[in-house]
């Protein structure tokens, strides 16, 4: 059997905490499968636990708002990719964070961090930030079901830029940066792509990202994503897309 849920011939994909032999999908996912997707008895689908394990099932029975399933094989562990890829994205206004999280999930990133910067237009208080991050996690879950990945990305925020200080593997999107071919592999096994607001980081924030070099650790790499100035969400998606071409499944998974 293929190691990737996306390559299994299934009608749909969703998430449950436990992958028992017989399971019932209800709540929002059950409504989606029974009333929107209109699954029928015998159809195949895959279920993942969000941490890399997935299993093929067939529909045993469809009820209003719920689907009963029976396993058609043993659980499979989807390989992780090396290096890990996290995108730290400055807050943008409107629905742009929603779009960025959706597309980054489809591209297979391991995590998304929302950054608060001095030049960010949105200003979220703690209550609004908690609600927004919860919404973005739902968007990531829906996107993960659509693209049929077995691992849900971690979505965190809102962090100040200075929280990234000293973190290994920083890659700053920069029009004056290096080409992808010159980007070294991260020594710690993880890239953290940092995308600032459309006005760029202010001098203090930029200096905070560079301070690691003064403490004997690797300085952030800088990656050029093309000849033009990109919107923040475009840079995040484009950067993740090109870095994905440098990733491969772990041989030991």
CATH topology of the largest domain: Alpha/beta knot
Provide the structure class: alpha/beta
The tally of domains stands at: 2
Instruction: Pick out the low-confidence regions.
Output: none
Number of strands: 14
Shape assignment: globular
Helix content, binned percent: 25-40%
Question: Which class of the largest domain in CATH terms?
Answer: Alpha Beta
* Alpha-carbon distance between the two ends: 15 Å
- Count helical runs: 5
What is the CATH homology-level superfamily of the largest domain?
SPOUT methyltransferase, trefoil knot domain
Mean pLDDT: 91
CATH architecture of the largest domain: 3-Layer(aba) Sandwich
The description of the largest β-sheet is: 6 strands, mixed
Beta-strand fraction estimate: 25-35%
User: Over all CA atoms, what is the radius of gyration?
Assistant: 20 Å
H/E element sequence = EEHEEEEEEHEHEEEHEHE
What do these coordinates show?
This protein is an alpha/beta fold. The protein has 2 domains: 5-77, Hypothetical PUA domain-like, domain 1 (Ribosomal Protein L25, Chain P, Beta Barrel), CATH 2.40.240.20; 81-249, SPOUT methyltransferase, trefoil knot domain (Alpha/beta knot, 3-Layer(aba) Sandwich), CATH 3.40.1280. It is built from 5 helices and 14 strands. It has helices spanning 27-36, 96-107, 126-147, 203-210, 232-244; strands at 12-15, 22-25, 44-48, 53-63, 66-71, 76-77, 81-82, 84-90, 111-116, 154-160, 170-178, 190-195, 221-223, 248-249. Strands 1, 2, 3, 4, 5 and 6 form a 6-stranded mixed sheet that branches. Strands 10-9-8-12-11-13 form a 6-stranded parallel sheet, covered by helices on one side. The chain has a two-stranded antiparallel ribbon with strand order 7-14. Helix 2 runs parallel beside helix 3 and helix 2 packs parallel to helix 5 (232-244).
């Amino acid at each position: 059997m293929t190691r990737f849920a996306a390559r299994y011939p299934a009608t749909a994909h969703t998430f449950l905490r436990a992958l028992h032999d017989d399971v019932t999908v209800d709540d929002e996912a059950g409504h989606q499968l029974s009333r929107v997707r209109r699954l029928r008895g015998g159809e195949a689908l895959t279920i993942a636990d969000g941490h890399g394990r997935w299993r093929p099932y067939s529909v045993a029975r469809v009820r209003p708002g719920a689907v009963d399933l029976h396993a058609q094989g043993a659980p499979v562990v989807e390989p992780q990719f090396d290096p890990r890829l996290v995108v730290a994205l400055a807050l943008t206004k409107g629905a742009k964070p929603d779009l960025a999280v959706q597309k980054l999930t489809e591209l297979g990133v391991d995590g998304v961090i929302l950054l608060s910067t001095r030049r960010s237009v949105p200003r979220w208080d703690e209550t609004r930030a908690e609600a927004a991050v919860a919404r973005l996690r739902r968007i990531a879950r829906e996107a993960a079901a659509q693209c049929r990945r077995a691992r849900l990305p971690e979505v965190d925020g809102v962090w100040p830029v200075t929280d990234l200080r000293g973190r290994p593997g920083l890659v700053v999107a920069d029009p004056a940066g290096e080409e992808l071919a010159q980007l070294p592999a991260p020594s710690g096994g993880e890239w953290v792509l940092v995308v600032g607001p459309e006005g760029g980081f202010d001098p203090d924030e930029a200096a905070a990202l560079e301070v690691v070099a003064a403490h004997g650790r690797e300085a952030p790499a800088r990656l050029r994503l093309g000849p033009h100035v990109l919107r923040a969400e475009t840079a995040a998606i484009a950067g993740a897309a090109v870095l994905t071409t440098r990733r491969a499944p772990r041989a030991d998974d």
